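Feature request, filed as a ticket because there's no other form

It would be nice if the structure record came with a short human-readable summary line next to the tokens. Right now we just get the raw output. Example of a typical job, pasted below so the devs can see what we mean:
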Amino acid sequence: MDSETLQRRRSSCAAGNNNNAVVGAKRVKRSEILAKKKAVEELIKAANAVMNPLEAFHAYRHFRLNGLCVCLKSGHGNQLSSAVKQYIQRLLKLNMEGPYGSEWLEEEKVKRREMVAPEARYIFVHEMADSSADEMRIMLTGEDASTPCLDDSGPLVGFLHYRFVLEEEIPVLYVYELQLEHRVWGKGLGKFLMQLIELMAQKNCMGAVMLTVQKANLQAMNFYISKLRYVISTMSPSKVNPMMDKSYEILCKTFSDEAKAVLEN
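Raw output as currently delivered:
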């Protein structure tokens, strides 16, 4: 065999080995991607499987501050009573018809479908039947304030609708709605509920909490950005394309470097 032929064979073998290495690397990368995807899906599944997430947060079962005394209950979208559905619809219209403006008629239909979805999770806020008497009883008896809401708890004064979802392959807790009656605004209840949501997200290994806010809802924008330190996400229309004329912003607060790199930077 002449030297030229030998050299060609060596080059061919080297090329073949390189091709095999590339194919092998692609297979490894693909298997890693699939494994990561499966792990993330399992996180979402495990989070959704928790029947009563409030059991893990005893300190957040009640809120007593600024003359307001409420207790919290958890719920699921496909288990709502007719009365609760009507309450949600009424409060949504009361709070959101103004910020949505001409978009409300269509948006209301969307929200009605979203609220009863099986993956919808809720925290319901009930006013205590007798707030002053309840506070006095706890002060006198030293009773554990973390006792869960009883069936005779008072009327609803608000709710929080959230879901565990994937955004850009990052597992997140997405707040669909945080709605409170006007008479309980300004007492720290909204901040209290968002603190609970952030703890729930971290406990379930979510990379972030995300939510959508109407630009016209200046009070909500100020609440999330200035008071709670949320930032406009890279997924928000104003960041994706500044020329987009959308009526909302997507906000986020991240808990991991990966989530921060994808959703913030």
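Something like this underneath would help us a lot:
The chain has one domain: 49-263.
Helices lie at 3-49, 82-100, 104-115, 131-141, 189-203, 218-227, 237-240, 257-263.
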